[in-house]
Structures are given as structure tokens and as C-alpha cells.
Design brief:
about 55% helix; two-stranded antiparallel sheet; mainly alpha
């Protein structure tokens, strides 16, 4: 039986997986971020892995989060809640788990 305190984290992870897979996953253009990230659309699950990697600079993490927060603040092709959820919960939360 799963531990009850992990259930919310599991639900968030499932939501993130659904938003970052399939025919139209949420992506961030690496050209907007710079700082050594690939200059191409980066699926948010890949971006999360890159941002959590120890070799990624704090400047790259800050720049990526700034772009994600800007996207979360306006509607860009998807409901605002999808971007804000991915930004705040999913790309920012993994270290908390």
C-alpha cells in the first residue's frame, strides 16, 4: 500500500507526465533560455532533467524558470493552468520530493 504522504506527489507526477507526452507535449524553446541549453524546443520533462543535473549552472536554471514563469503568467497555446502547474509544481518541485 502506498504511503499516504506520497499520494499528492504521485498525482502531480502523473499530471506532469500527461502534459509532457503525447502528440502535443508542453515544450520550451531553448533559444529563449540560452545558457548552454539546446537551441531547439525542449519537452518539459527533458528540461526538468536538465535543470536538476549537477552540471547545469544556476544561471541556466534561473533563466529557464524566468521563461517558465513568464509563460505561466500568460496564455500561450494551452490553458494558463497547464503552464503554471508545470512551472511551479513539476519543474520546481522535484528536489522537494
Amino acid at each position: 500500500m502506498p504511503r499516504p504522504e506520497w499520494l499528492p506527489f504521485d498525482q502531480v507526477e502523473t499530471s506532469f507526465r500527461l502534459l509532457t507526452t503525447g502528440p502535443c507535449p508542453l515544450v520550451l524553446d531553448g533559444r529563449q533560455v540560452g545558457h548552454g541549453l539546446p537551441a531547439r524546443p525542449i519537452p518539459l520533462d527533458e528540461l526538468r532533467a536538465r535543470l536538476l543535473h549537477p552540471s547545469t549552472s544556476f544561471a541556466a536554471r534561473d533563466a529557464a524558470m524566468a521563461v517558465l514563469l513568464a509563460r505561466a503568467g500568460r496564455r500561450v497555446g494551452r490553458p494558463r493552468s497547464a503552464w503554471s502547474g508545470c512551472c511551479c509544481r513539476d519543474c520546481g518541485m522535484p528536489p522537494a520530493r
